[in-house]
Amino acid sequence: MTTENEAPVRSAFLERLIANAIRFRWAVLVVVALLCAIGVWAFQRLPIDATPDITNVQVQINSEAAGFSPLEAEQRVTFPVETAIAGVPGLQYTRSISRYGLSQVTAVFEDGTSIYFARQLLNERLQSTRDQLPEGVTPEL
């Protein structure tokens, strides 16, 4: 709430501000132009993506198992691959699909995990599993 004495003080302040802005209009114009230039400069350097990356870190392991039924692909290819990657650091969960002649295992990692680090870890684990897989089946990242 304003008192009766504050209203004339505010009015006088605004009148002086407007009068000085009119009297020094070139200075006001230069300050406004400078602020606009700084705003344009700052806007061009904003580190904002139009569509930020909201996907999680995923690595897919595809294995062609020619001639295998979905059940055989699950038992002979998918299960050994899932077992091999089960203890990888940063792994949140895995999901898999086994179809005729195809096994696909998706490994989902925690946010902040480097995709290259995750691929390297999985590749190391898969190297030790290759002798457990049927002949001719090679998992690919």
Topology:
Elements: H1 6-23, H2 25-44, E1 57-64, H3 70-84, E2 91-99, E3 102-109, H4 115-129
Antiparallel strand pairs: 1-3, 2-3
Helix pairs in contact: 1-2
| Overall radius of gyration | 33 Å
What coarse outline follows from CA principal-axis ratios? Answer: rod-shaped
State mean pLDDT (0 to 100 scale): 88
Strand order of the largest sheet: 1-3-2
Description:
The chain is of the alpha+beta class and 141 residues long. It has 2 domains: 6-44; 57-132, 2-Layer Sandwich (Alpha-Beta Plaits). Helix content is 48%, strand content 18%. It has 4 helices and 3 strands. Strands 1-3-2 form a 3-stranded antiparallel sheet. A hairpin with a 2-residue loop joins strand 2 and strand 3. Helix 1 (6-23) crosses helix 2 (25-44). The longest helix has 20 residues, at 25-44. It is rod-shaped.
